[in-house]
Each structure stands twice: as C-alpha cells, then as structure tokens.
Amino acid sequence: xxxxxxxxxxxxxxxxxxxxxxxxxxxxxxxxxxxxxxxxxxxxxxxxxxxxxxxxxxxxxxxxxxxxxxxxxxxxxxxxxxxxxxxxxxxxxxxxxxxxxxxxxxxxxxxxxxxxxxxxxxxxxxxxxxxxxxxxxxxxxxxxxxxxxxxxxxxxxxxxxxxxxxxxxxxxxxxxxxxxxxxxxxxxxxxxxxxxxxxxxxxxxxxxxxxxxxxxxxxxxxxxxxxxxxxxxxxxxxxxxxxxxxxxxxxxxxxxxxxxxxxxxxxxxx
Length: 270
Ligand code: HEC
Ligand code: HEC
Fold this sequence. Notes:
This protein is an all-alpha fold and 270 residues long. It has eight helices and two strands.
C-alpha cells in the first residue's frame, strides 16, 4: 500500500515536470524574432486573428462559415468595419465584458457563446460547435480588439462597455407611414425599393435577412442601431426617423425563429 502510494506521487511529479517542459517552447512571444518586432514572422495566433477578421468580413461566402449561415449577411453588415467602427455594435473592448450573465439564457455565457448566438439569429443559420475552427477564429479576432484592456465582466447583460446606447423612445409614437417614406427617400438606393438588397447593400427584410430572433428584429434595438449606423457613412437620422424606420422595416416579412431549428450539435442554449 505505502510503496504504491509513494510511487503514484512520484509519477505525478514526473508527469507535471514533463508537461511543463513540453509546454515551454510553445510560448512564442519569447522568440527573438517577435521580441525585436521588426521582420517578425506571423505567429500562429496572428494567423488565427487574421482568419477571424476575414470570416467576419465574408461570413456568408467564406468556406469555414458559409455552411452555418442562412442569409445574405456578414457579421460586418451590422458590426460595421469588422467591428472596429466605434459606434455601430462595436467589437472594441467587447471581450472585457465576458463571461457575462445572459438573462435570455438564464446562465453565464462566454464570448464564444455570444458569437455563436449571432449565427442562429442575426445570420439565420445554425450554431457552429464551441471550439470549432470558425468559432475559435472569430472569438480570437474579437478578443484581439480588447488586447491590453481591463477585464470587467458584465453581471447584467452579455454586452460590452461600448455597446449601442439605447434611445429613449415612445413606441406608441412610431409612424410606420413616415418610416416607409424615409426608407424610399434615404435607404432604398442601397437596400432596394423592396428591401431585398442590391449590390450596394444587404437585404433589410425578406427571406435572406435576419430572422425574428435577432436583436435587430426588436424595434427599439433596430432604432438605436440605425441612429448610429445608417445611412452608411453618414448616420444622420433623428430619433423619430430611426423609430419610424425601425417600425416600418420590422413590420415586413422575415424568417421566423424556432430555436430547435438553429441549434448545432452542442445544444447548450435554451
Ligand atoms: C443583423 C445584424 C447583426 C449581424 C449580421 C450580426 N450581429 Fe452580432 N449583434 C448585433 C446586435 C444589434 C448586437 C447588440 C450590440 C449592441 O447593442 O451594441 C450584437 C451583439 C454581438 C456581440 C456582443 C457584443 C458586445 O458588445 O458584447 C457579439 C460578440 C456579436 N454580436 C458577434 C457577431 C458575430 C461574430 C456575427 C457574425 C457571425 C454577428 N454578430 C452578426 C447584430 C448583428
Ligand atoms: C450608401 C448605401 C447605404 C445607404 C444609403 C443605407 N445603407 Fe444600410 N447598409 C449599407 C451597407 C453596405 C450595409 C452593410 C454594411 C457593410 O457591409 O459594411 C448596410 C447595413 C444595414 C442594415 C443591417 C444589415 C441588414 O441588411 O439588415 C440595416 C438594417 C440597414 N442598413 C438599414 C438602412 C436604413 C434604414 C437606411 C436608410 C436610413 C440605410 N440602411 C441606408 C448601405 C447603405
């Protein structure tokens, strides 16, 4: 008994030493090339960050993400400039808020879970598995945009410190007719008279747009986002116009959302 106990401890110590030795060479930051920072070769981590950015820019066509997307949108359709626009659903600083409490799921979720939720809802697709290459790449890219910032986990919502500020709106005052008029005047040129999109902008309703489970499918959230994001390059709507447009756009047809139809293999969501 006694000897085998000692033997176990010895084996455990040896195994730990071995693991530490094996792990050392992978800490690439200590390599002389990256320490000089000049002609440093791209690290494996840098490559995954770049891949994540590429996927965020071309989610509906990139071979790694395309199978999980069910519409004509990309992440950057709403997270403008690949999430680097500081106002329009920015990814800057966002990783500092996670893990965060999610009232919708009634559990603590990670940044990766949050990314995967957007696949099911905003992208009208299916949820890639946690730890899959597409999920790791996007999450790594988003995390890179919080490098050096202090972690401040969010106890209330899965939202970063720079999220879209919610407008104070009286929903009862939404004027859909005016929304339709402003749409034709300021939006149709890029999103089409029929909202189905054209070469200058993605669909804002119809079968190839975000589904009813998406954040933007809620009138107050769409209004707040429009205020800081559209018209593209010149966000200049008044609060009332944003509300009227949001009510008009979300009164149009878009795919329904039934959670069971969007879950992948992992199924951790409610
Ligand atoms: C149809 C619009 C839309 C699309 C497309 C979309 N999202 Fe989102 N996403 C949102 C909105 C709106 C929010 C809430 C952001 C806010 O309030 O600032 C959000 C929130 C997030 C958050 C949390 C942000 C935070 O501040 O904590 C992450 C992460 C995220 N989305 C990732 C993605 C990824 C990755 C994709 C592509 C696979 C994607 N989203 C596609 C609209 C969209
Ligand atoms: C100059 C062209 C242009 C104009 C004008 C414009 N948009 Fe957009 N809009 C875009 C582009 C392009 C995107 C996607 C962002 C990207 O890929 O960089 C977008 C994204 C969107 C999205 C989120 C993605 C989606 O398709 O659901 C909504 C909603 C939207 N616009 C609504 C509007 C509204 C409402 C107006 C009028 C106030 C408007 N846009 C004016 C070009 C435009």
